[in-house]
Structures are given as C-alpha cells and as structure tokens.
Amino acid sequence: MFNKSDIESKVAEFLLQIKAIKLQPNNPFTWASGWKSPIYCDNRVTLSHPSVRTYIRQKLTQLIQEEFGSVDLIAGVATAGIPQGVLVAQELGLPFAYVRAKAKEHGTGSLIEGEIVEGQRVVVVEDLISTGKSSLAAVAALREAGLSVAGLVSIFTYGFDEAEENFKNAKCRYLALSDYDTLIDYASEHSFIPETDIDLLKRWRKNPSEWGKE
Question: Is 212 within a domain?
C-alpha cells in the first residue's frame, strides 16, 4: 500500500539531509527564469546516495503501479529525468526512452531518443516540477509521436498554481513523491530552518515571480 503521507515526509527528510534541497530565505537563489527563490532543488544529488536512490526508485515504481496500472514504456525528460527514469524502467522491466529539450540539430534530428511504438502507453518521469512547462513539452512530443501518455511522476513538486493549471489544460495527470508544503513542515519540525523563516517561505510559494522584489 502506498502510504502517501509517510512517503512525502520521508522523501522531504532525505532531500534535506543530503542537501539536494537547500533553504536560504535570507540569501536567496536566482533561477534561470530570473525568479528570486529561497529554495534550490537539485535531485541529481540523490543519485550519489545509494539508499536514497533506491528508496526513490522503489516509491516511484510503486506509485506508477498503483496509480497507472499496466504501461508499456517509461520516458524520462532531459536531463535530470533521464537517470530517474532509467532506474524506474529497470525496476519495472520496461523499455525506456527520453525526450530532449529540443530536437537534434544534426544526424536524425530526433526529439525522442530510444525505440518507441505508436500506441504504447507511457508514463513520464521527471525529477522536479516547477511551472510544468518543460515537462508538458515532453508530454506533447510523446503524444505527437502517437503514444498514449498515462501521466507523469516526479520526485518533488513546488505545487505552484501555475503548474496545476498547466497540467489541467494539457489534460495530463501528475503525481509527486513529496511537495513544498510537506518539505517546509518537516524542515520546521526538525530544525532545518528557524520558525521565523516559515512565513517568508510560505509567502514565496504564493507569488514566486514577484517575491524578493519588494
């Protein structure tokens, strides 16, 4: 049985412990989008920790089995979703493919790498969901190639309203092992951050594009 609450907390614990997620509300990071952020998430770090990597692989696999049933293919999203997707595909004994951020500018000009067959039912694997735009570009590419996208799974989501709206409009279900609210609660309860930072961290999630400009 997939115990959602326990898994969300355990993943949050792992990500904080191995510093895959860093919280710096008073010394914010700048994302590629230009947004100022009190949090930085790099789930590639999980690959360097065998016990964490194993737990995430097992729980992503379990999530796919329980929520999506039988599938024919696992697809990763370049680049950080590729290793996670490979691990899940191996666990499930399924073929794997991945979707590039953009098509090759040489050779075959491929956007999707790996062997795919029209009509295959696929689950997409990501490491992280922010706005969901890059993930949904991969979903669109798979659909255009004639595949049936059952949904998408990720290790972590910020839970932005924009992402919810984007996935809803794309008619694509998505699920994550842990989320921002769980992370902040765990970080507060286990002294990863002081209580005085909680309100600031919650305000960022409500309006990330404007946070830090005041």
Answer: no
